[in-house]
Amino acid sequence: MSTQRTTGRRKQAVAAAAVVAALLSTAACGGGNDDDGGGSKTGAAGFDAANNKVAQASLAKKGGTLKFAGAQDADSWDTTRGYYGFMWNFSRYYSRQLVTNKTAPGATGAEVTPDLAEKTAEISDDGKTYKYTLREGSTWEDGKPITSKDVKYGIERAWAQDVLSGGPIYLQQVLDPKKEYKGPYKDKSADKLGLKAIETPDDKTIIFKLPAANSDFEEMLALTSASPVRQDKDTKSKYGLKPFSSGPYKFQSYTPSKGIVLVRNTEWKASSDPVRKAYPDKITVDFFTNANDMDQRLIKGDYDLDIGQTGLSPQGRTTALKQHKANLDNPVSGYIRYAVFPQSVKPFDNEHCRKAVIYGADHESLQTARGGPVAGGDIGTNMLPPSVPGSEGQKYDPYELATANKNGNAAKAKEELKACGKPNGFKTTIAVRNNKPVEVATAESLQASLKKVGITVDIEQFDGAQTTGIIGSPSNVKKKGYGIIIMGWGPDFPSVQGYGLPLWSSDYILESGNNNFALIKDKTIDGLFDSYTKELDDTKKAAISTEINHKVMEGGYYLPFVFEKFINWRSNRLANVYTTDGYSGQYDFVNLGLKK
Amino acid sequence: MARGTAAGPRAVLAYLIRRLFAAAVMLVVIILVVFGIFFLVPRWAGVDPATMFVGKQADPAAIEAVRQKLGLADPIFAQVWEFFKGLFVGRTYSGGGDVTECAAPCFGYSFRNEQAIWPVLTDRFPVTLGLALGAAFLWLIFGVAAGVLSALKRGSLWDRGAMIIALGGVSLPIYFTGMLSLAIFSYGLGWIDGRYVPLSESFTGWLGGMILPWVTLAFLYAAMYARITRATMMEVLGEDYIRTARAKGLTEPVVIGKHAMRSTMTPILTMLGMDLGALIGGAILTETTFSLPGLGQAVLTAISDKDLPVILGVTLITSLAVIIANLLVDLLYAVIDPRVRLS
Amino acid sequence: MTAPLHEPTAEAAPSAADEAALIAGSAEAKAVQGRSLGRIAWERLKRDKLALAGGMVVLVLILIALLAPVIANLVGQDPETHHEDLIDPLFSTPTGSFGGISGDHLFGVEPVSGRDIFARIIYGARISLLVGFLSALVAVVLGTILGVLAGYFGGWIDATVSRVMDGLLAFPQLLFIIALVSVMPNEMLGLTGTGVRLFVMILVIGFFGWPYVGRVVRGQTLSLREREYVEAARSLGAGRFYILFKELLPNLVAPIIVYTTMMIPTNILTEAALSFLGVGVKPPTASWGQMLSAAIDYYESDPMYMVIPGVAIFITVLSFNLFGDGVRDALDPKGSR
């Protein structure tokens, strides 16, 4: 008996030792650091090698399976309904537009280039007519040609908000500001092409007639929501489950929240498409529900990249930075993370109280809460993202947030408090989404630093899924006393209109679904937006953008945290990789290739 | 067995009918409450549920349109009625020129991605069932065995050791033990891949994907079973009929295995019924940690996305599982312990 | 193979002789109890060193929670001050080894914010112990009362209670909790701020937890109520409530104590989930569960952050269990020790 027991115990000890050893070996996995600048032993291109430049373009071969992993499915894969940034990026695999973003790194990637159209628009002098001629040879996945009527129908679908909600509605606002057209499903005309602002004299020609000029119109046509849809293939609300392809790949299968398989669209001809390279034979997406697990599998090499493109989570980031730095890029995302002060909540009706918060905050601490200078981004100093023309980046820093006051300026904050008539500080509430731990961390940081200047804040976490209904309702914000709201915003297309119009224009103050949280009603800002949309000259447009940014900052409506940056993973197998400002610093999916 | 037959087949049948009726009532009440929470609470809080389904460019017309389409404007009772009607006779969805026929059993379409709910449920159910049954098998074997041994050798090193390990299991959240097991066996040692593979594709792949979730989940539950088994067993061992049995010269394995175990079974069965019932509705944390495409994962996403039809579908399945499991347990009480009457 | 099956027929239902012995036995035990129940239990408990140790640790934990501000003052730390200078900006983890453990920061500092973990652990004890224990108590009290009633009276009482339990088990609790986020009041019954939230949390966790206790207690009661000693008491004209509380309840003590002690860690973790969703305590209030959930993002890069709250929960559970075992043994009417 006794010997037996000893063996049993020894076995247990051995087992325990094995577990400990396993833990240790996990911690030391990889061991060797494979970062040696350009091209490493593993074949990875090097740290930041694909950030705003093309990495390993020559190594891309035709064929193979490109494997995406994702922690969240898109809102919809229907070209009319999708609004997530990665969906717009990914949709170029199966959809084409008249014009699209250039397949080039960095800022060039945000410029428009002809896609289905032979060349960019012929614009009339008054800026109200845009004419395109379609290219020969572009076809649907069943081989039929893509016509101007398909393009018109695809655009018209955005009018059917009762069936196809969720997508951007810029085209609707520009082409039909009075909302006279009721959408194709309620269209009484036989061809369902009743929208008057778009004319299709023949299958190759499409003419847009704008009631008023908008200098960003072509940018809006480059959005995924302007993709063609064929009427006989339109499954209406179910379209997002299997979109009909006009691009180089088509859906083989899609199960929401589980995965996607795209295969080559054999009817697509490279000669008809100047944009898409279509390297891989097959593209798969697997969705995970555990972001930490997903990161580990990216690092292991099971997958090539994260479809969400929002950076590795803290654990994966640490492992990757220490052991696989050559596989990482650190792009600027185009998002600004910030706190905004609704003027309806006292004492934030007084600009000095707003400025007291701006000065009282510890900006370096906020940056750390966002993930630090690398994973979080540079300290945000103004409200125009670096990727938008007219932005000045950290050079414009009216409150010296990144320099003199980066750890807060208590003296100035007190001064502002005095000017506001609250020399002893005040109490308020920070509203923060409950599904964004990083935002809660920034709220805690803000709370800690404001305490030092006498501003006491209570952190209230609200249901992140109801953002539109809770903080998007000004009356609710006022009732709950949300004096500080923590949010983030990125441009839909890189212009002051695509970024700031919903945030700063008084026309966009809505009873529900409001994004002008600060409730800015400034005639000057409204006027500047008006002149922006009428201005066709790019240099002058940029100058107006700069001015709008200055006006917003001077009002003290916002406390920017960071110009957001990410740490994104790219596998050893990827070739022809580059980040593009056209999709908020994400890798340009459509032209990714594999090495073998 | 003479005493056990107090409930004749007729009585059992009447009992079953009564139970089924009560179960139906319960189902309706649960669905009503779910609807109520979904629609009344946001209204109470001053939030329009329709705003959850429009994009970030939400103009009032779009919000109104969504309200109409999803039927959010109808009274709750009308919606509940439509839901149950859909289950039995199917229903037709129409709005904005889009008409969809949904045949019975119609669980509706996702508010988020428009997919039909019934296939989602039938697709995900086997994953969750496999997870729950596999884990239950493990925790029953290890939990009960550890509990019996602890009770027999109470105060021994074995007893204390088993307790400490078991308590470790309940002290750590599942996402933690789960991540740890993945870190060791999948990323570290590389013994198993750890990703879910459907049983239809490969048996070994399925086994490889399920083994860590099974063990992790069982580790959490085994503690409870071990502790309850130990406590009940000790109680039972003090009973006079055990003493009698021993005095009659029955061997120890017979005394423990047959007589003592019989009484110990009651609480274990009760717990098993509850735990299995609740787990079949989805082991949310385990499925999330291991990215298992089961019901729990679906309901978690659905709840955070406010995807009511998915929530309703999974809730119905969970309710049925709980009802059936507890019915079986109540019937088994009478089999195990003939003194228990069905009432 | 068949022999053992035939042999013990008597055991399925004890023979008449056994029954007699049984009645006599329990009556005897009762008589002993009747004389000095509390005293005997205390005497037994005093002899059980492990149980006493468990009880002592529980007491110490409660003292730590009560004296948290004093202790934090002694070591010169508080749970809310950020120390970002101790954080590596690249990895968001503490720069020092072992999670930044130092003379100043006994348990190190949190990733990202650099808040002192020792202070957060002792302050967190207040929330975690309070919620963990009180919500278990709510669940056990509700579960025991309703479970005994259902099991003993049967009929419509049983049907109603059982269906309610089924309903609660099947109900998507998360839906309820997330809905609660939007309607959480800031004042209630004279409570404000954290008070309201603790109160709501204890109620919610207890409310969704009682069916687990309820079903087990009901099951046990079902089998106990037909026992001979209960019948004997009944035939002697004992009142229903006398039987319930004097005959049945003592025999339910074992599962109830096990359940109470085992629910504590689950409740501590549930508190973290609720707080994370915005129903529980507001940031920056510390709790063990919250620390443990936050630690998952650093499970390899800062393992100490996980180990410390994990050990705190483990010690709590272990000591409650040891103490619970001791109490159970001490109260056991048939206990031989």
UniProtKB/TrEMBL annotation, chain A:
<dbReference type="Pfam" id="PF00496">
    <property type="entry name" value="SBP_bac_5"/>
</dbReference>
<feature type="signal peptide">
    <location>
        <begin position="1"/>
        <end position="30"/>
    </location>
</feature>
<protein>
    <submittedName>
        <fullName>ABC transporter substrate-binding protein</fullName>
    </submittedName>
</protein>
<dbReference type="InterPro" id="IPR000914">
    <property type="entry name" value="SBP_5_dom"/>
</dbReference>
<dbReference type="InterPro" id="IPR030678">
    <property type="entry name" value="Peptide/Ni-bd"/>
</dbReference>
<dbReference type="InterPro" id="IPR039424">
    <property type="entry name" value="SBP_5"/>
</dbReference>
<keyword id="KW-0732">Signal</keyword>
<feature type="domain" description="Solute-binding protein family 5">
    <location>
        <begin position="111"/>
        <end position="507"/>
    </location>
</feature>
Automatic annotation (TrEMBL), chain C:
<comment type="similarity">
    <text>Belongs to the binding-protein-dependent transport system permease family.</text>
</comment>
<protein>
    <submittedName>
        <fullName>ABC transporter permease</fullName>
    </submittedName>
</protein>
<feature type="transmembrane region" description="Helical">
    <location>
        <begin position="196"/>
        <end position="217"/>
    </location>
</feature>
<keyword id="KW-0812">Transmembrane</keyword>
<dbReference type="InterPro" id="IPR050366">
    <property type="entry name" value="BP-dependent_transpt_permease"/>
</dbReference>
<feature type="transmembrane region" description="Helical">
    <location>
        <begin position="304"/>
        <end position="324"/>
    </location>
</feature>
<dbReference type="InterPro" id="IPR000515">
    <property type="entry name" value="MetI-like"/>
</dbReference>
<dbReference type="InterPro" id="IPR035906">
    <property type="entry name" value="MetI-like_sf"/>
</dbReference>
<feature type="transmembrane region" description="Helical">
    <location>
        <begin position="164"/>
        <end position="184"/>
    </location>
</feature>
<dbReference type="Pfam" id="PF12911">
    <property type="entry name" value="OppC_N"/>
</dbReference>
<feature type="domain" description="ABC transmembrane type-1">
    <location>
        <begin position="125"/>
        <end position="324"/>
    </location>
</feature>
<keyword id="KW-1133">Transmembrane helix</keyword>
<dbReference type="InterPro" id="IPR025966">
    <property type="entry name" value="OppC_N"/>
</dbReference>
<keyword id="KW-0813">Transport</keyword>
<feature type="transmembrane region" description="Helical">
    <location>
        <begin position="248"/>
        <end position="268"/>
    </location>
</feature>
<keyword id="KW-1003">Cell membrane</keyword>
<dbReference type="Pfam" id="PF00528">
    <property type="entry name" value="BPD_transp_1"/>
</dbReference>
<feature type="transmembrane region" description="Helical">
    <location>
        <begin position="50"/>
        <end position="72"/>
    </location>
</feature>
<feature type="transmembrane region" description="Helical">
    <location>
        <begin position="127"/>
        <end position="152"/>
    </location>
</feature>
<keyword id="KW-0472">Membrane</keyword>
